[in-house]
Automatic annotation (TrEMBL):
GO biological process terms held by the UniProt record: DNA replication
Origin species: Marinobacterium halophilum
Protein name: II/X family phage/plasmid replication protein
Domain spans labelled Replication-associated protein G2P N-terminal: 3-232
Recorded superkingdom: Bacteria
Length: 278
C-alpha cells in the first residue's frame, strides 16, 4: 500500500481578504521597495498536524480566490501518517473543507467543484510505502547496507544519521529511506498536542522501513501530472514502482522492485554492517 505524504499545490480557495502571516519585503539601499512576498500562514489541524496556506490571487474586491497550499494532508486530517490514502483528489478536497472550517470561510459551490474535479496545479507530491523487516535492528541494518550498496544512474547515496537519500539534489525526483519508528520518536513528533500512538501501533511500526518518493515540479510537468485531475488516470503504486526501478545496486544492476532490493541485501551482511554503524 502506498500513500500521499505531502502536497504542494495552487488551489481554488475563497477567503474574505488576504491569507498570510505577514510579508517579506526587499528594500534597496535607497529605501525603495523592490518586491514583497507573502509569508505562509501555518494552520493547525488534528493533533498539531499543520498545513501552510497563502494568497496567490485575489478578485476585484481584494478577496482570496486562489491559494498556495503545502503540507501533509494525512497528518493534518488524522494526526499521524503511519498509514493513510493515495486518493489525491479526495485528500485535497477534505483538507480544503477542514481549512474552510478552521478559517470560518465557507467555500462557494463553483470553487469547491473545481477542487473536487482536480482543476488545480501541483508543484510537489510525496508518495511513500512501508516495508516490514522484522525488527528495528534489521531496518537500521538494511539502511546501512543501502548507504553503501545502492545508487541511481546519476547520483550515489547521501546519508544523514540513519536516513539514506538517493538522487537527493535532483530538481526532478528523489528517494528517502528511513526507520519510521525512529522518525516517530523525534522530538518534533512527541511535543504536547501530538497524537499519542497506541502501544500496539508502536510495536508494529518498529519493524517498518519507509521509502518516500518526492516528485518535483519539473518532473510532474513532464509526466503531465502537474494537473491534479490527471491523477485519476494512473495507479499510484505503479508510479512509485516505476521510480523504484531506477535504483541500482552498486554493480549497476537495476532493481525490479524495492521488495527485491530488500531481499538482495542479505540479512547476515546487513547485520554485520549494522555493528559498524553502531
Amino acid at each position: 500500500m502506498v500513500m500521499i505524504d505531502w502536497v504542494s499545490a495552487k488551489i481554488p480557495f475563497y477567503y474574505p481578504g488576504i491569507i498570510s502571516d505577514g510579508e517579506v519585503v526587499s528594500v534597496t539601499r535607497d529605501g525603495e521597495v523592490e518586491y514583497a512576498v507573502r509569508k505562509r500562514l501555518l494552520i493547525r489541524g488534528s493533533h498539531d498536524g499543520a498545513i501552510t496556506l497563502r494568497t496567490v490571487e485575489v478578485d476585484s474586491d481584494g478577496n482570496t480566490v486562489l491559494a498556495e497550499l503545502s503540507g501533509n494532508p494525512v497528518k493534518f486530517l488524522q494526526g499521524h501518517n503511519l498509514f493513510g490514502s493515495d486518493d489525491l483528489l479526495n485528500l485535497v478536497a477534505e483538507t480544503v473543507l477542514r481549512l474552510a472550517e478552521i478559517l470560518k470561510a465557507p467555500q462557494p459551490d463553483q470553487s469547491f467543484k473545481m477542487v473536487r474535479s482536480g482543476n488545480y496545479t501541483l508543484s510537489r507530491i510525496d508518495i511513500n510505502r512501508m516495508f516490514a523487516l522484522g525488527s528495528r535492528a534489521e531496518v537500521l541494518a538494511y539502511l546501512y547496507a543501502m548507504s553503501t550498496n545502492t545508487r541511481t544512474r546519476s547520483q550515489g547515496p547521501v546519508t544523514k544519521g540513519t536516513t539514506v537519500y538517493l538522487n537527493k539534489t535532483s530538481k526532478r525526483w528523489s528517494f528517502k529511506f528511513y526507520s519510521k519508528a525512529q522518525e516517530a520518536e523525534l522530538k518534533r513528533n512527541r511535543k504536547q498536542g501530538t497524537l499519542d500512538i497506541p502501544t500496539n501501533l508502536k510495536e508494529w511500526v518498529n519493524a517498518m522501513l519507509r521509502a518516500e518518493l518526492t516528485l518535483k515540479s519539473n518532473e510532474l510537468r513532464e509526466l503531465n501530472l502537474h494537473v491534479a485531475a490527471n491523477w485519476h488516470t494512473i495507479e499510484t503504486l505503479d508510479l512509485f514502482a516505476d521510480y523504484a526501478e531506477r535504483i541500482e545496486m552498486a554493480a549497476q544492476k537495476p532493481i525490479d522492485d524495492l521488495s527485491d532490493l530488500i531481499q538482495k541485501i542479505s540479512t547476515k551482511a546487513a547485520v554485520s554492517s549494522y555493528q559498524l554503524w553502531r
